[in-house]
Amino acid sequence: MPSPSVGRNSNANDGMSGESLQCSRILIYLSWVLVVLTMPFSFLVCFKVVKEYERAVIFRLGRLMKGGAKGPGIFFILPCIDAYARVDLRTRTYDVPPQEVLTKDSVTVSVDAVVYYRVSNATVSIANVENAHHSTRLLAQTTLRNTMGTRHLHEILSERMTISGSMQIQLDEVTAAWGIKVERVEILPVQLQRAMAAEAEASREARAKVIAAEGEQKASRALREASEIIGDSPAALQLRYLQTLNTISAEKNSTIVFPLPIDMLTYFMKANEQN
To answer: Tag placement on the chain: N or C end, fewer CB within 10 Å?
Structure first.
C-alpha cells in the first residue's frame, strides 16, 4: 500500500505549474525525437528487463511515474529524462552482531539474532527511506538491545520464542513505512550458553545445599530421639557402649584405648559426693 509521502509525490505531478509542465512536455518530446533518430540503436537503451524477483521504480524528471513499479519482464524508458532503480524482492537474512545487553536484573550478557525480511513495496522502499536495508539492520540492533534490557536473565533463557515474536511485531510496525516486511526473528542461544550453564550450575548447587540441610535436620532429630531413649534406659546405654567397643575391636588398629565403664565412673562420682 503506498505511503502518504508517495501520494504527495503523485499529487505534485498533478499540481505542477504551467511553465514546469510545458518544460517537461518539451523535454519528453525531444527525448522521443532522439529515440526515433537513433533507431534501432536507441532500443538498446530504452528497453530494460527485470527478473521475476525484481521490480523497477522509474523516475521521470525526478518524479515517480504513475502506475507504480514495473516488472517482471520488459519495460520502456526514455533516455536522458528517465532513471530507474532495481529492487530485489527476495527474502534477505541479516545476522545481528552480538550485542552487550544489561538485563533487568543487572546481568550483562551477549546476545545475537537473525532477522529475515524482504521488500514488500518497491516504490515505498525507494521513495520513503534512503537505504531501506541499512535502516532495517540498524533498527534490528537497537530493538534487540531495548527488548533484552527489559527482561530478566531467566526470561531470556526460557522465553526466546516469545521474545522473538515480540521483536518481529515491533520491527514490522516501523519498517512497514519503509516498504519492508519482517518475516521472522530468531534469537540465537549460542552466546547465552555460558549464562545458561552458570544458571544451571547455581540451581544444582542450591538444590544440593537444600538436600544437605534437610539431611542434617533429619539426622539431628534422630540423634535427639536416640539420646532420649538411651537416657531413659541405663541398660540401653550400656549396650550401646558394648556395641562401640565391638566396632573398635573389629578395626585393624595397633593400639586401642578402652574408656572406663560409665557405671564405674558413676560409682566414683557418688562416693566423692558422700565424702
So the answer is: C
